[in-house]
Amino acid sequence: MNARQVGTTHPTRLSLILPAYNEVDVIERTIAEAQSYFRKRGISYELIVSADGDDGTRELIAGLARTDPSLSAIGGNSRRGKGYAIRQAVPLTNGQIVGFVDADGKTPISELDKVFPWFERDYDLVIGSRAMPDSMVERRQPWYRQIGSWGFGIAMHTIVGLQSIPDTQCGFKFFQRAVAVNLFRRQVVDGYMFDVEILYLAMQMNYRLAQVGVRWRDDRDSRLNLVRGNARNAIDLLRIPWNGRRAGEDETVQVPPGANDGGELQSLPGGEAR
């Protein structure tokens, strides 16, 4: 099933991508919350569900799309990975802002209220974070995953850098559309480490990035296999600096307007430079 291009005489403000793998039990609630948020605030939108799996998620979206032409789905039965799912969806978007959220709604869509002001200040990308002073983690991960996240952070910062970004993995990230297209056409990691790769590329290309503290709660439904998954993540982490250096050396790279000369980051509260 291919995503439909939404034809309209009015510009679409936001394209929201929901990567999903066998999420038929929760995706409808997340979509309804997003639709309600956008309609109450008068924001023009489109929703693209990039769904792998064979549980009927794409078929469910096809049914919902009959009453909402701005809703569509792409994907196939085999599991390709979250990075792959978003990479396939970005070129299909029409919105001035392009972003993605977790299909299970770990971060409420209403946290977008904190994101829009940064784009009005000409920032290139805005990411949600669970590590800002005003972040609110309503339910934490199990202890063994917290230990794993701590170890991941040490390994990631050692291999890739990004010390100014304490939380690379929160699934709540938004981009100016030209920035999203530019980054995701260079992104190659299919799995969970795509977040790190995107942020690494953004810093290599001198984009202005803001971090905002968000509400987040664990849903106790992680699909990551702790042994096989972490082995793949380690390999992907090692690939990221190499791929990023190649992108930075690419003479065809054209940094869109809005980038500065120093990969500037800002965080809330207080707009403190990081």
Q: What features would you describe in this structure?
A:
Helix 7 packs parallel to helix 8. The protein has 2 domains: about 1-105, Spore Coat Polysaccharide Biosynthesis Protein SpsA, Chain A, CATH 3.90.550; about 105-274, no CATH class. The N and C termini lie far apart (about 40 Å). The chain is an alpha/beta fold and about 270 residues long. It is globular, with a radius of gyration of 18 Å. The protein has helices at about 25-40, 55-65, 80-90, 115-120, 145-160, 175-185, 195-205, 230-250; strands at about 15-20, 45-50, 70-75, 95-100, 125-130, 135-140, 170-175, 210-215, 215, 265, 270-274.
Poorly predicted ranges:
1-9, 251-264, 268-274
Q: What letter string, H or E per element, gives the SSE order?
A: EHEHEHEHEEHEHHEEHEE
How many discrete domains? 2
From the spread of the alpha carbons, the general shape counts as globular
Count of helical stretches: 8
* Beta-strand share of residues: 15-25%
Proportion of residues in helical segments: 25-40%
- Secondary structure category: alpha/beta
Strands ordered across the widest β-sheet: 3-2-1-4-7-5-8-10-11
Query: What is the residue-averaged pLDDT?
Result: 83
Please report the distance between the alpha carbons of the first and last residues.
42 Å
- Biggest sheet architecture: 9 strands, mixed
Radius of gyration: 18 Å
* E-strand count: 11
